[in-house]
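Work Package 4 report. The design task specified in the project plan requires that, given a folded chain encoded as structure tokens, an amino acid be chosen for each position. We show below one input record used in the internal validation round.
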């Protein structure tokens, strides 16, 4: 990646130009950059789907937004690793005053993914137990906050003391060390041997086979992340009538996307959703951010400050 000067975009009909104050870095950005993502954009290409800033300009027909409004962005026509991003109106959402721009840049992919995985795909409901397998990163923290606000019992996992402390602070009633030899038994013991109802899985290539042994009957696993193939025993799924669900945000319908962000804006307004920013980097250090987001021991969200 290189930092270059390009012409400032102009908002056309139905479009909004946003002056970016902070842009979020996600693992999927690294997959797209490296060519590992199924959809390969034409080059040159400006990365980034997540950001927060201020409306600079609105095009003809835009309603509900005006220059000066604070917003967060969930998708861009021109890429968010930039000073300005051109967006379709449906991809721009109000950012409450209590939420910083850096926090706003941490909303779209982590919280929308967590919401879709937990509620739209796994159909999680109040009173159920959810295991957030890898709870210290952006999606993990979002999952914990969403599940707690929905009245669920949460078991979160983390690989460091600092990470586990963070997960507990965000609302998980139970936190375990997924590097400990007996952590699977610990999880089952916390459910009285019954198993968990929902698992949100950030690393299926390592954990999916284990996950199936942790489910209660009728349990569901939402696969949010995987870096390769994995071997499972289908009998573990059969014995529990388990359901394995793939989660990819680009598969959501426009109606589902609108529903997700209506819920997220409400959560930001009432304080139940509180994005955690683990690291801020200046925009020219985007390459370092791509390295950091793929390192183990994630701790909140990495954002670029434009």
């Amino acid at each position: 990646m290189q930092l270059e000067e390009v012409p400032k975009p102009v908002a056309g009909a139905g479009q909004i130009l946003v002056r970016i104050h902070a842009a979020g870095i996600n693992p999927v950005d690294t997959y797209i950059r490296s060519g590992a993502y199924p959809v390969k954009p034409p080059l040159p290409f400006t990365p980034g789907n997540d950001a927060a800033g201020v409306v600079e300009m609105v095009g003809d027909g835009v309603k509900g937004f005006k220059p000066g409004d604070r917003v967060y962005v969930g998708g861009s026509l021109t890429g968010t690793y930039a000073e300005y991003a051109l967006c379709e109106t449906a991809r721009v959402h109000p950012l409450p005053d209590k939420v910083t721009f850096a926090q706003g840049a941490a909303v779209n992919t982590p919280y929308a993914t967590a919401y879709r995985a937990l509620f739209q795909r796994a159909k999680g409901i109040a009173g159920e137990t959810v295991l957030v397998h890898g709870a210290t990163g952006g999606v993990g923290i979002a999952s914990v906050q969403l599940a707690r606000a929905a009245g669920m019992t949460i078991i979160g996992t983390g690989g460091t003391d600092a990470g586990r402390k963070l997960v507990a602070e965000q609302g998980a009633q139970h936190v375990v060390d997924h590097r400990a030899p007996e952590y699977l038994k610990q999880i089952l013991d916390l459910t009285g041997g019954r198993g968990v109802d929902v698992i949100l899985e950030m690393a299926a290539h390592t954990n999916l086979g284990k996950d199936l042994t942790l489910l209660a009957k009728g349990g569901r696993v939402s696969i949010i992340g995987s870096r390769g193939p994995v071997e499972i025993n289908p009998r573990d799924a059969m014995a529990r009538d388990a359901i394995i669900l793939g989660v990819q945000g680009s598969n959501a319908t426009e109606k589902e996307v609108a529903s997700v962000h209506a819920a997220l804006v409400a959560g930001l307004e009432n304080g139940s959703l509180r994005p955690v920013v683990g690291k801020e980097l200046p925009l020219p250090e985007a390459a370092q951010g791509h390295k950091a987001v793929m390192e183990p021991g994630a701790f909140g969200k990495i954002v670029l400050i434009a």
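The mean pLDDT is 96. Validation will be extended to a larger panel in the next phase.
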